[in-house]
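Translate structure to sequence.
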């Protein structure tokens, strides 16, 4: 029974992780809805006489992980001889999305049109620098820069 409950929790965690990834923003309600729908489809309450408590769905503070915890009470047959009518089982599953390592390519227009007015090229430089400095793409990413239409080279590895 614990294996079946674990399978349902794993499926729910994967569904919640997928919802978190595709939501665009941290939509915890959608994550919870999707996770519980998958859990209920895989382990409906009352199946095989098992009483299932509503699973808890937790989205990590950084919005890159989903944890599902569930518990159930299983009626005991043989254990009744020893005074125990039910067995309590609990399982937990966590899925995490890792967001490191990304290839980023910039195409910089440095032709004369960018200097009419020349604040355009300054804005391009400032915004490109701000993106690189933000480290938005994780600890490691490869930066490529295209300076003209005729050549392309890797400028630096961050």
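Result:
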């Amino acid at each position: 029974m614990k294996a079946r409950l674990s399978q349902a929790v794993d499926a729910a965690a994967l569904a919640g992780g997928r919802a978190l990834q595709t939501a665009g923003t941290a939509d915890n309600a959608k994550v919870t809805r999707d996770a519980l729908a998958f859990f209920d489809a895989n382990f409906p309450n009352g199946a095989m006489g098992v009483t299932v408590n509503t699973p808890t769905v937790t989205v990590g503070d950084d919005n890159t992980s989903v944890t599902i915890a569930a518990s159930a009470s299983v009626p005991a047959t043989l254990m009744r001889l020893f005074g125990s009518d039910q067995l309590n089982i609990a399982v937990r599953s966590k899925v995490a999305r890792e967001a490191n390592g990304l290839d980023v390519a910039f195409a910089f227009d440095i032709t004369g049109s960018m200097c009419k007015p020349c604040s355009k090229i300054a804005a391009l430089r400032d915004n490109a620098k701000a993106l690189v400095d933000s480290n938005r793409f994780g600890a490691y990413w490869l930066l490529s820069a295209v300076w003209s239409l005729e050549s392309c080279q890797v400028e630096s590895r961050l």
